[in-house]
Amino acid sequence: MTPFEFQKYQKLNSLVPSFKALLFDVDGTLADNIHAHKAAYVAVSKEYGIVLDPDLIDETAGWPTVAVADEISVRYGVPLNREEFAKRKSTIFIEQFIAETQPIHYVKQILLDHQHSHKIGIVSGGSRSTLNITLQVIGVQDCYETLVCAGDTPEGKPSPQPFLLAADMLQIHPKDCLVFEDGDPGVQGAISAGMSWVRIDQI
Questions:
Q1: 32, 108, 110, 132: which has the highest count of C-beta atoms within 10 A?
Q2: How far apart are CA 78 and CA 65, in angstroms?
């Protein structure tokens, strides 16, 4: 951890004692892999004849892949089978990019330092299969008590549903949860769920 990362770690760590549960997003929060996800989205879009602007992935950070597929379909006027698109995107990401994923060290350290003093949940818009591999690659596969991912709730982020499900599974009141995020959809979901939040990319 660099001195700059350690400063961020200290700022995040100072927030933790006021809460009973910590809920972490994965892509862009625990895992430094947003560029890889963008590349996978660009690659699969190209197979459909779409020259994708990767900024769209920043706008939809935290959305389930099927929802991103729907948004791409609307914006580019190309009908997409959302399930097939999502499956292909996941395959490209796993085959070409996932092994190179690195943790965001100052966020990972928060999780590791508090896994025995707090309830820990993972709340992501990614698929369970991809998330399980990502969490293993960054070394936190056994450090949480619940994982909420795409398909576990009728609505994904920015809906509060994934966060409320995680709180329910951990048996912690939403007001006692601190959410770690890197995107607006996740923050909106946390707010709607009545939870406190921090944007790890803005500290």
A1: 110
A2: 16
Q: Which two tokens stand for residue 4?
A: 């700059």
Decide if 138 contacts 103 (C-beta within 8 A): yes
Residue pLDDT, tens place only, 123-141: 999 889 889 999 999 999 9
- At residue 78, the 3 state secondary structure works out as coil
Q: Flag whether the pTM goes above 0.85.
A: no
Q: For residues 184 and 187, what is the distance between their CA atoms, to the nearest angstrom? A: 5
Cβ(41)–Cβ(52) below 8 Å: yes
Per the CB < 8 A criterion, the answer to whether 62 and 163 are in contact is no
Q: Which residues pair with 31 in a beta bridge?
A: 27, 103
DSSP-derived pairing of the beta strands 21-24 and 31-32: unpaired
Q: Which residues pair with 65 in a beta bridge?
A: none
Which pairing describes strands 31-32 and 102-103: parallel, antiparallel, or unpaired? antiparallel
